[in-house]
Write a structure and sequence with these properties.
650 residues, binds calcium ion, 9 helices, Neuraminidase, nine-stranded antiparallel sheet, binds MU-OXO-diiron
Length: 650
Amino acid sequence: MIDEHPEGSNPTANPRLGDLIDARLSRRQLLMGAAATAMVTVIGAGPATAADDPSDDSPTAERGDDDRKGSRLRFTEVPTTDADTVVVPAGYRWQVLIPWGTGLFADSAPFREDASNSAADQRGQVGFNHDGMHFFPDGRNPSSGGVLVLNHEYTDANQIYTAAQGLAITPDAAGREKVAKALAGHGVTVVEIRRKRDGSWEHVVGARRNRRITATTPMAFSGPVAASHPMLASSITPSPLGTINNCSMGVTPWGTYLTGEENWNGYFGTADPAWTPSALERRYGVTAAGFAYNWHLAEPRFDLAVNRNELNHFGWVVEIDPQNPRSTPVKRSALGRIKHEGATCTEADGRVVVYTGDDENGDYLYKFVGDGSWARHRRAGRSPLDHGILYVGVFDGEGGGSWAPLVHGTGPLTAANGWADQADVLIRTRQAADAVGATRLHRPEWVAVDERTNDVYVSLTNGSGNPAPVNSNRDPNPYGHVLRIREQGGDNAAATFAWDIYLRAGDPGYDPTVPAGQPLFGSPDGVWADPDGLVWVQTDISNSSQNRADRGYDRIGNCAMVVSDPRTGELKRFLTGPRGCEITGITITPDRRTMFVNIQHPGESSTFWNNQFGAPSPANPSTVSSWPYGGRPRAATVVITREDGGRIGR
Ligand code: FEO
Ligand code: CA
Ligand code: CA
């Protein structure tokens, strides 16, 4: 994403994870001696860590069996690069699938290279800026066909409008058409795909389950916050419409897709000088200028002074049934209202557990725990996501922590303190979390659960202003790190946990606290634990920093995907992307011979490249990148296979 709000919206004095990591490192230095402290950041590789004690519950203690000896990462690492292409290891190949603008239906308009496709055309085409994604395999040949579901985080005005349309949003029909095209480029794409005889993949035009969900698709609400809640009352959209800024995702145990609404605040604005934000709105970073999209100039739906409650329709996790194209997506309010990066699901004793990061500098990590067997809820016709408790993470300075419940009437969340009911707690989730003393983190992004060990990995992409250990002792922390959480007893529903830093990103040439010899990478965002427990990490380096020496990012190059082995501490770079992009979204076929990865925002305005070739504009969108086809840059899914047909990464 574009880092619109680096300073954060959290005004509290709640402890910062960085302080806690600092404190923890100090403790470790005492325990282990200064020479051993470097190992703290290379989890699992440290012979001098608590891993030597098999009864240890700290994340440094490795669990699970491993019948293989030596490296499990059997591919040749790719180098860093600033080339405008995708690079995968020798013996692998990649293929572009469903780039932005690809037609989904029999009557879809073809993509027009000059961006002259209308809003109506866009509604029948794959959306813009592919992000979190999951492949739902079909029964008979599960590794040869199924449904691919992917998010579209935002649109880039330099790329979606023609030279004649330009950037300005005018208060007329032309402006409304431009906003409508952007709205249609957002949301989610559901598309059937299949493997061809030659091993390449194709999407199936006109397939039954193909669907576009956009920022104008009718939505239902469920859980404690009903669509009829007074805080959601909108004269313009009396029934909630659309989902927006869909970043990462989750897959429920019952086979539905969850999508997180992240930076929804930036879509709103107003020209009315009398409008000022409420405390609630300030806490979510709502401002009159927004992210300067200026949609409100053409569409009063997004004008804060006209339709303020529209804000409260967003910031939720949305559940989508990928198998039923006529189903209404549902905003599951019990999972809270934040800037949801994603909604990573796992199970604990039959209950569903959902981890979700609030991606803003200084914000929190949350966990929802279902209140009983999800299967029993489903059999009774209830959603398991409507019944449970939302918690927020409190990290101590000793490598431990607890989950604080956000339950009305519990702790400070009482009527006497101004909390009306559970719906109020959820609409004001951030403030409720402030009240219970949640720990400030450096931008919690994706969460992954290793289903073999139940360990939880959390990307903290980067941040500043929170100088302390859990934020890797760095202020600013331009490189980010991956946190590991081990829940008490390996139970993902537990009330307490241990944590440590799994990976510390960066360039040791600029930051000597980064382990020397570790493959260079920065700003971890996507994270996924594969069925063998290998942890894949995808990067999203801000385009104000990408490739720049004065930001310590020249040697790191373009965004990349690395893979790590928690058992050995081994880390290798698997893929690099084109200029200006981030790498995000990862899913694999059941046979693990086809991997899908998204290339988001290739060619986005990037300080380093703008200085050499000029900034992209509607008149020339290709100054930074012309990936994938040599012309207008287009976000796309890439399909990765091995030339010998083997398993990916092994
Ligand atoms: Fe949309 Fe937090 O990345
Ligand atoms: Ca990001
Ligand atoms: Ca992200």
